[in-house]
Write a structure and sequence with these properties.
The chain has a single domain, classed as SH3 type barrels (Roll), CATH 2.30.30.100. It starts with a strand and ends with a strand. It is globular, with a radius of gyration of 22 Å. A hairpin with a 4-residue loop joins strand 1 and strand 2. It is of the alpha+beta class and about 140 residues long.
C-alpha cells in the first residue's frame, strides 16, 4: 500500500492508496493513476488560527488540527482511474492524517456494507430482445 495525498487541479487534497498505471510491465512512464479508497481531506481550522503569534507549531504531528474526510467519489466502488493531468502534486501524508483516513475508511465501509445489492441470480424473461436496435423498436436478438 502506498498512501499518498494528491493535490488535484481543482485544489482538492485527496488521500488514497495511489498506484501508477503503466501501459505494460516494461513501461517507464505512467499513463494514469489508480486511487483506491480515495477521500478528500479538509482542514477545518482557519490558517490564521493555526499560526497565531506565540503558538508553537509542531509540524511533525500537526498538533490538534481538525480534519474532515469525505469520500472523493461516493458513487464509485472504491477504485478510481485518474488522469495524470488532474494531479498537480503527490506527497507523503503525516501519520495522524493516515490514521484519520484509515478510521474514515473503516466507518465508511461499515455504513456501505448494507447498501443495495444487485441480484444477478434472476434470469431475464424470455422473448425479450437484446442488442442494438434494428429500427422497429426492438433489439436484434431474441433471448429465446
Amino acid at each position: 500500500m502506498s498512501v499518498k495525498i494528491a493535490r488535484m487541479q481543482n485544489g482538492e487534497d485527496v488521500i488514497a492508496d495511489i498506484k501508477e498505471i503503466r501501459p505494460d510491465a516494461t513501461g517507464k512512464t505512467a499513463i494514469a493513476y489508480e486511487f483506491i479508497d480515495a477521500f478528500t481531506v479538509t482542514i477545518l481550522r482557519q490558517v490564521e488560527d493555526m499560526f497565531q503569534e506565540g503558538d508553537k507549531v509542531d509540524m511533525e504531528s500537526l498538533g490538534n488540527i481538525e480534519l474532515e474526510f469525505f469520500p472523493w467519489s461516493p458513487l464509485s466502488t472504491g477504485r478510481n482511474i485518474v488522469t495524470l493531468y488532474s494531479v498537480v502534486a503527490i506527497s507523503d501524508p503525516h501519520s495522524n492524517v493516515v490514521d484519520g483516513w484509515q478510521q474514515a475508511i473503516k466507518k465508511y465501509k461499515e455504513i456501505k456494507k448494507d447498501d443495495a445489492k444487485v441480484d444477478h441470480t434472476q434470469t431475464p424473461p424470455t422473448a425479450v430482445f437484446v442488442g442494438e436496435d434494428n429500427g422497429n423498436g426492438g433489439g436484434t436478438e431474441s433471448t429465446d
